[in-house]
Amino acid sequence: MLDNKYFLMVSFDINQESEKLDWAFLDAQHEPLEKAKGVETGLFVFEAGETMRLNVVANSYQEELVGVHIIDCHLMNRPIMYSRRVTPQMAGEYPFPSPFFDPAQPLNGQGATASFGHGEAHGGPMKMVWDSDLELIYRNKGRWQMSFIMTVAIERANGLEYRVFSFDPEAHVGSGGTPDSPWHRKAGDGNGGTAK
Question: Which of 46, 91, 140, 151 is the least buried, fewest Cβ under 10 Å from its Cβ?
């Protein structure tokens, strides 16, 4: 269903001094997601089976864009130990390596890091966009700190300029379910999805 699709949008200006990306989680209509309330206050909450794709936006407010090439981009996840407050019977244990990790295929090369590939952004003189073909599926319950790093090549009059942009660990992902909820992770099972 369309409503089960989400986007991680990262954006930058080709002339910005810092390496920090602006980022947001968007829904299927590209509207910003609201953070959760209650136990999951301040987090973005996803459920098992929902998907996420990457959307990269390059802006330029001082000069016309000529070309922007995404060389590589990686989403990194760090599992956060289950707490006594939310999941007392699992306190001290860790969730799977990432919310997207498939325990049925543990050796498929996609653990704590998801690589979105490379490509060329398209658009006009002020804004260019690249969408990754990779679609990640939220599979597991838990919380993860998420960070992102990306290498780009920017076409300039005197050649290519290489930049690295990132955002620091700021996201937590899991189902947000209580231990009695249908998204509670059992041994050998992975359900759910939350991000801060």
Answer: 91
Give CA 28 to chain center in angstroms: 15
The pTM score is 0.82
Write the DSSP symbol of residue 110. -
For the segment 150-195, what is each residue's pLDDT rounded down to a tens digit? 999 999 989 999 999 999 865 565 554 433 333 333 333 333 444 4
Place of tokens 């930049």: 163
What range does the domain containing 69 cover?
2-195
Cα–Cα distance, 94 to 6 (Å, whole number) = 25
CA distance 154 to 161: 5
Give me the residue label for tokens 């076409």.
155
Provide the domain count of the chain.
1
